[in-house]
Design brief:
Order of helices and strands: HEEHEHEHEHHH
Shape: globular
Strand content: 5-15%
Radius of gyration: 15 Å
Length: 158
């Protein structure tokens, strides 16, 4: 069960007790994320996005959290972005991870792919979680299909 303050973050969605996702948290909400026990923030928002926090990396690190920034261009997500995300998720297994973007569209797509490819989650269940928030548009559907077709080995589920 997530902390009630974290649950108020735009489009918050907790998939596991170790993985929370959302849209862009505010500086105050990052403190709530830290107090809820998260150890790593992965940010998929480009630095020049409308609601991006200019000093987010510094803010998060000052809270004692680890920080990874993978700026994913909304209109042009890249396979390399997904691969970097997968590498970070795998390298940080065992940590409590919070992943965000602007409104949780990028994140939900990346997490859908990670769960099906690495955690062995049934595609139907993962798709249901993805579509809780949005139905990917044509460019994102194409991206998802492209990444899903990659020969990435599955790892054991947690």
């Amino acid at each position: 069960m997530a902390d009630s303050r974290v649950e108020k973050i735009i489009n918050f969605y907790e998939l596991y007790d170790w993985l929370g996702t959302s849209g862009q948290p505010t500086p105050v909400e990052f403190k709530a994320i830290q107090e809820a026990g998260y150890q790593l923030i992965i940010n998929l928002v480009p630095s020049d996005a409308e609601h991006a926090i200019p000093n987010e990396a510094e803010l998060v690190k000052n809270l004692g959290l680890e920080y990874v920034h993978i700026p994913v261009i909304w209109d042009a997500p890249q396979v390399a972005d997904a691969l970097q995300f997968f590498n970070e998720m795998q390298a940080n297994r065992g940590k409590k991870i919070f992943v965000h973007c602007q409104v949780n569209y990028r994140v939900s797509s990346f997490v859908y792919l990670y769960r099906t490819k690495y955690l062995g989650v049934d595609e139907k269940q993962a798709r249901q979680d993805l579509q809780w928030l949005w139905e990917p548009n044509a460019s994102w559907r194409k991206f998802i299909e492209q990444v899903a077709a990659l020969p990435i080995p599955q790892a054991d589920a947690r």
